Amino acid sequence: MIEPVRIVEVGPRDGLQSISQPISTENKKTYIDLLTEAGCPEIEVTSFVSPKWVPQLADAKEVSALIKRDDDTIYTALVPNKIGLETAIDNQYQSVAIFTAASETFSQKNTNASIKGNFERFEDMHPLWKETNLRVRAYISTCWVCPYEGDIGAEAVIKVIQDLIDLGIHEISLGDTVGKATPDDVEYLLNIILDNWPVELFALHMHDTYKMAAENITIGLGVGIRAIDSSTGGIGGCPYAPGAKGNISTETVVRICHEQGFDTGINIDKLKLAGTYIQSIIQS
Ligand code: HMG
Ligand code: MG
Question: How far is the CA of 173 from the centre of ligand 2 (A)?
């Protein structure tokens, strides 16, 4: 039997959050619908964060109401706090992503709170996501390198993972926010993590600033990781990570997975249509 890899398409959120030109709600809807038609198993549609912090996604409610939802696709929204979680629930999400970091400075710049402060927000959200039976994935940004502090030690990542697991998080996505992790760095940290926890808990979220992401996800696949975040056309970056480029492209991840004999469920021709569409909007 062919083993599946679940690709988490983050282009509509991570991709579009850092594109300075305005993208219309209708264009976002069309892009997300094309991703659904391509068979993406999970799409991170948008974020319910402060529109003052990320004005690009200020139409999150409108986008969420307009998109076509397919029963075979998980639609996820990124939320930073209880206001965001409540809004996600009101907008028909059964899956949300929360986020924190292994670096204190990045956490402060991205969320106006320390890592401990992020966990206080998670504690505040916890009863509601339990009561509503939501699926919750969590990002840990800057698992290898922080744009402000430089190299991050494994012990900082391990501490955040343990605290997330104590909260009952369903999946933890390990972020190379600035794309500076080398394959050796990735292998080193994954070996430590997987000595302690089951591989099924983890996803990789690699930005591709220095073109190491393909090799890095190959290492992840090699150690058993079966959930990979990516964005169509490799668009995006984080507005609070200066210099960071987009995620590894979904087209590249699909190609690597299919070459290695994994099943992604994604139709590559239809995916290319989605990629061409959003790139034509961004460049127009
Ligand atoms: P704050 O200013 O400390 O928030 O920001 P606050 O609680 O003091 O509230 C200030 C105002 O924001 C209030 O409104 C709140 O109602 C409002 P006012 O009274 O001034 O009119 N507010 C909200 N509005 C809408 N939705 C909300 C919300 N919360 C408060 N959820 C906050 C704290 C967390 C809100 C802010 O820092 C924020 O929104 N940060 C998000 C930044 C962000 O989205 N970054 C990019 C995503 S993370 C990423 O890209 C990394 C990742 O891809 C992984 C990787 O690559 O490493 C995931
Ligand atoms: Mg990211």
Answer: 10
